Amino acid sequence: MSLVRKFATVGSGTMASRLLGFVREMLMAAAVGVGPVADAFYAAFQFPNTFRRLFAEGAFNAAFVPLFAREIEAGGIEGAKKFAEEVFGVLFGILIVLTIVMELAMPFVIRYAIAPGFADDPVKLDMTVLLAMIMFPYLICMSLGAMMAGMLNSLRQYFVAAIAPVFLNVILVGILSVVWYLGAEGQVVGEALAWGVLSAGVVQLAIVWGALRRNRVNIGLRRPRLTPNVKRLLWLALPAAITGGITQINTLIGTAIASGLDGAVSSLNLADRVYQLPLGVVGVAVGVVLLPELARALRAGHMRDAANLQNRSVEFSLFLTLPAGAALMVISEPIVRVLYERGAFGPENTAVVASILAIFGLGLPAFVLIKAFTPGYFAREDTRTPMIFAGVSVALNITVALTLFPVMGAPGIAAAAVVSGWTNAALLFGTLAWRGHWGADMALLSRIPRLVLAAAIMAGALYGAITQFADNLAPSALFVTQATTLGAMVIAAMVLYFGIAFLTGGADFGMIRRNVRRGADKSPENEIE
C-alpha cells in the first residue's frame, strides 16, 4: 500500500470521527451552551482523555510499535505475540491499580489540579467529580485498545484502528439526541454523556480485539512480569508518554487555568473540536503511519528510504495544513456561527470561540509538524530527547498562559499553546538536522515557500469574500444562507489554493503519482524521488 493511501486510510477513519464530533458538539452547544454542565463535562473528560494520551496512545505508538515491529522481524508473529502478552499483563495490572487510586482521590484531584477555579461553585465542582469518576475507567479500555491498535498498525492493518474511535461520537450523538428529544437538562445530560463515554470505551476495545483475532493474533492474559523486553518498553515509554501527549498536557494545563472564568473551559473545547479536524485527519494519520514505516526502513538499513519518508510526510502535511490554518485564521467567525450558534449558544459566545479558533489556526502547521518530526526520534528508540523538548514546551505554555489569561481570557490560553507548539516543532526539527537524521531535500525546500504563497493568496481572497458577503454571514441571516455562503467560500478557496499550488510548482501531479504508487516495490532503488 502506498504512503499516501496509508495516510488516506487512517485519515478517513479520523475524519469520520471528527465529523461526528462536530455533530456531537453542535448538539451539546444547542442543549447546554457554554454553561456549568458543559464546563463540568469537558473538564471531567479531559482527565481520563489526557491519561489515555499519556499512558496509551503516546507511549505505545512511540515505544511499543518499534519494539513490536522488531519482534516481528526477528521472531515472526509468534515471537511478537509472546512479547505483546508480556506487555498486556503488566499494562493491565498498572491500569487496575491506577484506576482504583484515582477513583479514591478524584475529589482532591479535581479541586486542586484539574479545575481549581470551580472551587467557588460547589455544585459545578461536585458535578465535575461525579462525571470524572464515571468516566475514568474508560482509561482501561482505551489503553488496552491503543496497544492493540499499535499491533494492527505494525501489521499494516490501519483502517480498523482508525475507525474504532468513531463509535465514541456515534454513542454520544445518540445520547444527546435522546436527551434533547425528551427535554432533559442540567446534570442529567452530563451523567448520560459520562456513561456514554464509558460504554464507548468498551465498544472500541471489542472492535480492535476482534480485528486482531481475525489476523490470527490472540492475546492471552499472562501474570505481570518485568521481563527484559518489558523493562525496555517501560524505559522507552515513560518519556514517550510525556512527548506523545504534549498537546494533551498543554490542554489540561489550559483547562486548569481557564476554570477560573465561567464558560472558558467549554469555549476552548468547542474551538479545539474545529481545529482538531485537520490536525486529526493529517497530523494523526502522518504520525500513525510514519512511525512503523520509518522503524521498518531503519531496521532494514534503508537510510535513503527513511529520509524520503520523513521529507514526503512533511511535504504532505504542509500541503494540506497551510491552507487549513490560513482559513481558520480568516473565517473563524462564520465557521463557529454555522456550527454552533443556535439554542443556548448565542452571538457573544461565537465571538469568544472564534477568536480562540483563529489563534489555533496560527499554530495548526506546528501541531502537525510535531506529529511528523517525533517519529524520527521514536523509530530510533530515542524517546528522551523529545521528552526534554516537551518539558520546555510545557514550561513555556504555563508561563505564557498565566501571563496572557488575566489580560486576554481564554484566547490567551490558545496563544500560549501556539507559542509552545512552534517552539517544540523548531527544537525537534533543529536537532534532527544537527544529528544528520534529516538531510536537505531540495524538492521540499523549493515547494514550501510556494505553498506559503498559495495559502496567503487564498487567505486574502477569503478576507475579501467575508467582507463582500457580510450580510449573508450575519447572525440575523437564515442558517441555510449562512451555511451555503460559507460552503461556497470554502470550495472556491480550495480551488484557488490548489490551482496556485500546482501552477507555481508547490505541488505537481508527478509527486502525487509517485506517492500513490509507492509500496508496489519495497526495494531502496525504488524510493520516492
The count of β-strands is: 0
Could you describe the largest sheet, including whether it forms a barrel? none
Please state roughly what percent of the residues sit in beta strands, choosing from under 5%, 5-15%, 15-25%, 25-35%, 35-45% or over 45%: under 5%
Fraction in helix: over 70%
- What structural category do the secondary elements indicate? mainly alpha
The gyration radius over C-alpha positions equals 23 Å
Distance between the termini: 17 Å
Number of helices: 20
* Spatial shape: globular
Arithmetic mean pLDDT: 81
Q: Which parts are unreliable, with pLDDT below 50 for 5 consecutive residues or more? A: 515-529
- H/E element sequence: HHHHHHHHHHHHHHHHHHHH
How would you briefly describe this protein structure?
This protein is mainly α and 529 residues long. The protein contains 20 helices and no strands. α4 packs parallel to α7 (187-214).
Describe the model.
The longest helix has 79 residues, at 36-114. The chain has 20 helices and no strands. By secondary structure, the chain is an all-alpha fold.
Ordered list of secondary-structure elements with their pairings:
Blueprint: H1 3-32, H2 36-114, H3 122-135, H4 138-154, H5 158-163, H6 166-182, H7 187-214, H8 228-244, H9 246-258, H10 264-299, H11 303-330, H12 332-340, H13 347-373, H14 375-378, H15 384-408, H16 410-434, H17 442-468, H18 470-473, H19 479-504, H20 509-517
Helix pairs in contact: 1-6, 1-10, 2-3, 2-4, 2-7, 2-8, 2-9, 2-10, 3-7, 4-7, 6-7, 8-15, 9-15, 9-16, 10-11, 10-13, 10-16, 11-13, 11-17, 12-13, 12-19, 13-16, 15-16, 17-19
